[in-house]
Amino acid sequence: ADISMRIAAGEVIERPSSLAKELIENSLDAGARSISIQTEQGGKNSFVIEDDGCGIAFEELPLALERYATSKISDIEDLERISTLGYRGEALASIAAVSRMEIRSRARGAESGGVIRCEAGEITLHSETPAKSGTRVQIDDLFFNLPARRKFLKTSSAELRRIVQIVNDYALIHPEVAFRLSEENRKILEYGNAESVDECLLRRWGRQTRIYRSQAQSGALSVRIWWNPAPDSRRIAVTLFVNGRRVQDAAVRAAIVSQDAASYGEWLVLIELPAQEVDVNIHPTKEEIRFRRSGDVFKTVYDCAKALFAQRLS
Ligand code: ADP
Ligand code: MG
């Protein structure tokens, strides 16, 4: 890959947890019911993700690696109402540019599968092969061709912690999907299917936790919030998903922090709104977003959080 591609790739892919986020989102977009990740050295040496989703047809494998190739949007109008998590067609191309990558996949209903290998953006193998239905992506030696980036990575356990957080968060809001994570063959996380987000939260926060839950609606904007006041905590942790995408947003955090009552504890905030009301296209990693009516979002989240304090007092 040329220098500019490598630099651009470094923007989308910062560290092994970026692989987790992008590849989990791809698996979810593919309709997976089971997602399993295996890492070595916190994903620095090896990151493998397997899913049972719709798969990629043999002929489409090279396309999946091409920059700006996405099967998820076909015209400019689609860009206005993005409903899948991916849409930029950047993740696989970016990862491929800065690693050694192999994808094995069999599309649902296809007789046989395919494998494609890529090293620093150059395809080195593309052939038919027997494969399990679904997709397996393996990334070895992330940033092997960007030594400065590689040096910047943290210890294996620190990188693993970030991956754990990503898996934990996606597992929370996808009760219908089983998630597994292991590092060097050691089991780290295992979540079977659950009935609801509530059940996932109890799993995460502990069965004894008293969870406060509230929802609010403003036109087409829907906000659901779960709060674990964690009485010993002096920390406010906000996990936010907007239309299924894990993001950060200062206004949402402010709406929780600026309450009169103490808002210590853990928060899960799920916001759904029409795709054209939110611009996810402002940053390559899609971790920052812009609400078209951020005042409205602030107020709705604020009111919804406020209702939780009232519940707690009553
Ligand atoms: P995007 O998600 O933005 O479309 P990606 O680079 O992440 O772009 O993926 C490129 C394409 O590869 C996707 O549009 C999809 O068609 C295909 N793809 C990637 N991962 C999977 C997967 N796990 N299962 C099925 N198809 C996949
Ligand atoms: Mg994607």
Describe this structure in words.
Strand 9 (212-218) and strand 10 (221-228) form a beta hairpin. This protein starts with a helix and ends with a helix. The longest helix has 20 residues, at 294-313. Helix content is 32%, strand content 29%. It folds into two domains: 3-191, Histidine kinase-like ATPase, C-terminal domain (Heat Shock Protein 90); 207-313, 2-Layer Sandwich (Ribosomal Protein S5, domain 2), CATH 3.30.230. The protein contains ten helices and 15 strands. It has helices at residues 3-12, 16-29, 61-64, 76-80, 91-97, 147-152, 156-173, 197-205, 250-257, 294-313; strands at residues 34-40, 46-51, 100-106, 113-119, 122-129, 134-140, 178-183, 186-191, 212-218, 221-228, 236-242, 245-247, 265-272, 278-279, 290-291. An eight-stranded mixed β-sheet has the order 5-4-3-6-2-1-7-8, covered by helices on one side. A five-stranded mixed β-sheet has the order 9-10-13-11-12, with helices on one face. The protein is of the alpha+beta class and 314 residues long. Helix 2 (16-29) packs parallel to helix 7. The protein binds adenosine-5'-diphosphate and magnesium ion. One of its GO terms (molecular function) is ATP hydrolysis activity. Keywords: DNA damage, DNA repair. One of its GO terms (biological process) is mismatch repair. One of its GO terms (cellular component) is mismatch repair complex. Residues 201-310 form the DNA mismatch repair protein S5 domain.
